[in-house]
Write the structure tokens for this entry.
Amino acid sequence: MNVLLIGSGGREHALAWKMAASPMLTQLYAAPGNPGVAAYAALVKLDVADHAAVAAFCREKRIDLVVVGPEAPLVAGIADDLRAEGIRVFGPSKAAARLEGSKSFTKELCDRYGIPTAAYGRFDNLEAARAYVKEKGAPIVIKADGLAAGKGVTVAITEKEALAALEACFDGSFGAAGAEVVIEEFLTGEEASFFCLCDGRTALPFGTAQDHKRVADGDTGPNTGGMGAYSPAPVMTPEMIERTMREIIEPTMRGMAEMGAPYSGILFAGLMITDQGPKLIEYNVRFGDPECQVLMMRLKDDLLVLLNAATDGQLAHMSVRWRDEAALTVVMAARGYPAAPEKGSVIEGVDVAAALEDVEIFHAGTAINAGALVANGGRVLNVTAIGKTVAEAQKRAYEAVDLIDWPQGFCRRDIGWRAVEREEQA
Ligand code: AMP
Ligand code: GLY
């Protein structure tokens, strides 16, 4: 098979690495990819927002499957436009991608199908939104409705913070994404990422992970795209997975099909495991980044076989096998991330670190400049390891981190702390 992979992050490097292990793969192309992806794929310069150009490329290169990494092209309808040209795509339609593209769409689906989620109100003007916050009090959560690259959510501990966040939404800080605001009840519990491979009808559980959103140790500092992750998530016991499927995922699949927007692709549920059970925080219509990296480390099966089955509506009789070990990834970021990452610094020692057993280093924001590997984004490398326990995977990942010579980079030193504590208590 010839495959076109869209995206440029650590998630796409992990997907490329795993697809490259498939005997079904003939040629992989990546648009735009990155220096890590280049080990497995021909990198192509394509404007992925120009769906006609992507379709023309697929015809020319006889692409059998397009795998879309990030959400923006899906929300923009790339899957619909390519399918209209007879090109097979792994990923949801534009209508189905509203699960990530519109928070109010997802909230209404939850209302209609009794899916457990935070209580909420929805507002298109500042005055009404302020009144709601004053009525409910803090802590409370403010969300710009549309896609805001992970920056549209404020978990406000005080009413003052909540009101400031509302003003930022309505003064245009998030562009069109802030024209409507969803205000939510603050949920308490432990967060988990839960993935399902979906084919429009069937949702197949596809692993669990926990992410670390805050930039600094001890879960402090500003929110980021994710500073590290591990899989599996201990809180997602078989019983919790079963409840999540029954109470959240299956009604979602049914609801989407009933409204004529059946969901296919990967469905990523951000969950809060509360005293009352799992509650949906949000859906994403893609793999998590860096959660994908730890899932790919543990997946035993041929990824291309599974992506093909999802694309062709053939998941009903499939199963997925995982390695029993834990996987953990540490994000190395450029100084200044998330506010203003410095670009261009030289990174050495990646090959030495990657040579360690049970370690893979996925590139996120890197580039090659005059033959040297340099930082080219906020999150730059994902140093990933597998081990019998989370503690062992953590130790191995940090051994690899310490072999990387990059004074202008930093990482958290406590990725996996919650699971390691659990293991120590067990
Ligand atoms: P998001 O950008 O939607 O992933 O949200 C960022 C983070 O905000 C989530 O990972 C949660 O930690 C937190 N969050 C979002 N909604 C809620 C909620 N209703 N209650 C508590 N925390 C929340
Ligand atoms: N790591 C969280 C996300 O990909 O949204």
The chain has four domains: 2-91, 125-179, 190-317, 326-425. The domain at 125-179 is CATH 3.30.1490.20 (Dna Ligase; domain 1). The chain has 14 helices and 22 strands.
